[in-house]
Amino acid sequence: MNRTPSRNPKGRRLTVNLFIVLFLIVGTFVAIQFAKGYRPNLQNRSLSGTGLLSVTSYPKSARVIINDKLTTVTDDKLYLLPGSYTVKIEKDGFHPWVKTLPIKNELVTSSDARLFPIITATSPLTFYQVKNAALNTDGTKIAYVLKDSPQEITNGLYIHSLSGNLLGSSNVQISENSPKDFSQALLIWSPDSSQILAIFIDKIPATKNTRQTERVSAAYLLSTKGINSRTMSDVTLRLPLIISEWQDQFAKLNLPTLNLFPKYMVEILTKKAGNVYFSPDKEKVFYTALLDVSLPENEIAKALPNVNSTLESRNLTKDQTYLFDLKEGTNYLLPFATKSSELTKDLIVSVSATPSASLSLIRQLKAQTESRLTTNLTWYSNSRQIIVTNPDGVNMVDYDGINMVNVTYVQPLDGFVATSPDGGKLVLLTNINQKPDIFNLITFDLK
Fold it and tell me: Residue 92 falls within a domain, yes or no?
């Protein structure tokens, strides 16, 4: 009787195992290529490379229009073939955001749009009359002088906290407006926001042989923690020491931030630029060039897979204002910036060799915290936008100089603008529905 030879079970198991290994290898390869953005192209019978576009916005659920076609809503991620795309993000009631973005094979391109309302709701922070507002070092508190209140005792110098106060009012009076009228004083915050210098300046009329000059007539140092005594001591004689101490504090704040930047930018910011203002997150800085100079090639960008597509300006022109982004090493021209003809801020990185209380040093201290004194630009609290004041009112623009939109046509008094730490409120010292010479702190809702 003939028997059919049995198949080799070991050989069959080996074949199955080889197929499994091959399947895993092919599957892993396909998964990796898919994760990189490759997609099947049925026409060419091949895998075509794509790039990933990540679209986010505040507020969320905004429409995403790519090359004039409604594509999705934020927040979403899209695989697109390499190329240049015009991305528009819009939401009813808000200004649209538009930018041309390059999509590169196997790379992620991000578009993070902050949309601002077309019509902003307003609310008064103060009533009657406000004069002489001053912003503290980190932009979280406003010192202001209230006048023309029905009760004389409530007139005086106040502190308003932009971050709110769960334990009580956001407005705290620290001094009455008598016997000194603080609306006539130069108000300067200390670097740590614990004190305010109120400096009174007299103008000495010009004569045949002399020009008009100014001198400090009185100076008072006030605590910001609570009400100050009406019998405050004049600290005019101590001003050189106070200024020297505050210069040292500003230097200790500026130097660690400055040292984060490349050496060539440290050289420019300290010696070849004025009106230097760091962003709240310390990762960006805008500045005005004091002379023509060129930045070296962007080595930081070379080491990154993808950077902002907005065109750089690495050849600086005197009196033009620029913004440098530390994370990407990019530098952008801000052509809409203007500068004061009266004052240029010098970045304080050391203490004056000889203590002095000159008016130029006093004004330099004030300019350290208030960019409105030297330029029409102010940082928005998220560090990704800049507030711009011009004849059209108050505008918002992306840090790279694109997407400028108008928030309000109202003009702020002396350019005073501030934002709440969460970016939800814009605060202006301005006039709305009152007599032309009556100004108050008004909030504009940006949510």
Answer: yes
Q: Which of 90, 114, 138 lies at the terminal end of a domain, its last residue?
A: 114
Residue with tokens 């010192």: 143
Using CA atoms of 12, 14, 15, 17 in order, give the dihedral in degrees to the nearest 10: 120
Portion of the chain with pLDDT greater than 90, in percent:
80
Which is nearest to 389 in space by CA: 411, 361, 370, 356? 411
Instruction: Residue 182: name the closest of 235, 133, 216, 231 by CA.
Output: 133
What is the amino acid identity at position 209? N
**Residue 67 structural domain:** 46-114
Q: How many residues does the chain have?
A: 447
pLDDT at 45 over 70: no
User: In angstroms, rounded to a whole number, what is the distance separating the alpha carbons of residues 220 and 241?
Assistant: 14
Residues 161, 247 within the same domain: yes
Q: What pLDDT does 412 receive? A: 97
Residue 320 DSSP SS3: coil
Long-range Cβ contact pairs of 245-250 (< 8 A, separation 24 or more): 246/190, 246/191, 246/365, 247/348, 247/350, 247/351, 247/352, 247/365, 248/351, 249/190, 249/191, 249/192, 250/191, 250/348, 250/365, 250/368
Yes or no: say if 400 and 308 are a contact pair by the CB < 8 Å rule. yes
Alpha-carbon gap, residue 104 to 307, rounded angstroms: 11
pLDDT tens figures, 379-414: 999 999 999 999 999 999 999 999 999 999 999 999
- The encoded tokens of residue 280 equal 């709240």
Residue 436 banded pLDDT, cuts 50, 70, 90: confident
Are 347 and 405 part of one and the same domain? yes
Summarised one tens digit per residue, pLDDT across range 48-97 is 578 999 999 999 999 999 999 999 999 999 999 999 999 999 999 999 99
